[in-house]
Write a structure and sequence with these properties.
Layout lengths: L7 E4 L5 H12 L3 E6 L3 H13 L4 E5 L7 H13 L5 E4 L14 H22 L8 E5 L12 H21 L5 E7 L13 H10 L8 H12 L10 E4 L6
Helix pairs in contact: 1-2, 1-7, 3-4, 4-5
Bound molecules: NADP nicotinamide-adenine-dinucleotide phosphate (NAP).
């Protein structure tokens, strides 16, 4: 477990799924974690309670990142809690929707880009003044960004944008000692993801992976904790594929 003692962290979408596992993983390393949510307050409170039960420090923060000013509002709340130093920012909150090219509406497209691309972009912009030497930003990309899996063209494009964004942000923020990376999971079993719970979805997932089991959120959380730590001090501008060897 990487040592994150004394570090402050924000995990967007930390209330459930992969974000929950990331929040718990960072807390196990010793970080104080702000667990962000938009609608699932009870789930976010449960994550905070679990961290506190283990002796850690945590609090909830709320914002709808589909709103144009959602990232600005969230950043202001984060600054009011952590003060002058944010060591770890994980832009995990995201939405996906399976739909064919001809089914995709302008509203669907705009919504996915608002939550998955615009929000992390402006969250970094609004929080970079409190990030410092050795701070780390990790964003959630996806296998879909570089491989055609399912009917997810619009969603996949948002994750392609994340891969591009981390390179540019890493370049711009590197002079301040801030690292920016992405992790790209394959199919991960979460409460809301029904795909890996169907026989067909499970078979498809296993058939495209070198490793023959379905990924769990903690498989991603531990990698994010590593990237957030000093152990990853020479890694920046990268998208790390965490997908059990999918589509090799
Ligand atoms: N699961 C996979 O197989 C998979 C694979 C590759 C990449 N990913 C990426 O990994 C990340 C997490 O995925 P997941 O499967 O863990 O998702 P999930 O279980 O559906 O959880 C999504 C999280 O994002 C938050 N969120 C959703 N819409 C939001 C909005 N408009 N404003 C603010 N917060 C919002 C949710 O908050 P509430 O709980 O309050 O609703 C929740 O905490 C996403 O970026 C996703 O694209 C997932």
């Amino acid at each position: 477990m990487p040592n994150l003692t004394g570090k402050t962290a924000l995990v967007t979408g930390g209330s459930r799924g992969i974000g929950r596992a990331i929040a718990l993983s960072l807390a196990r390393g010793g970080a104080q974690v702000l667990v962000h949510y938009t609608s699932c307050e009870t789930e976010a409170e449960a994550v905070v309670a679990e961290i506190r039960k283990g002796g850690g420090r945590a609090a909830i923060v709320a914002a709808d990142l589909a709103d144009a000013m959602g990232p600005h509002k969230l950043a202001a709340e984060v600054r009011s809690i952590i003060g002058a130093r944010l060591d770890i920012m994980v832009a995990n909150a995201g939405e996906s929707k399976s739909m064919s090219l001809d089914e995709t509406s302008v509203e669907d497209f705009n919504h996915l880009f608002a939550v998955n691309v615009r929000a992390p972009f402006f969250l970094v912009q609004q929080l970079m003044s409190v990030m410092c030497k050795n701070s780390s930003v990790v964003m959630l990309s996806s296998l879909a960004a570089h491989s055609s899996v399912g009917s997810q063209s619009a969603y996949a494009a948002t994750k392609g944008a994340i891969d591009t964004m981390v390179k540019h942000f890493a370049s711009v923020l590197g002079e301040h000692g801030i690292r920016v990376n992405a992790v790209a999971p394959g199919a991960v079993e979460t409460d809301k993801s029904s795909f890996t719970k169907t026989d067909a979805g499970r078979q498809f997932t296993l058939s495209m992976q070198a490793l023959k089991r379905v990924a769990q959120p903690d498989d991603i959380g531990t990698v994010v904790a590593f990237l957030s730590s000093n152990d990853a001090r020479w890694i920046t501008g990268e998208t790390v594929h965490v997908d059990g060897g999918s589509q090799l």
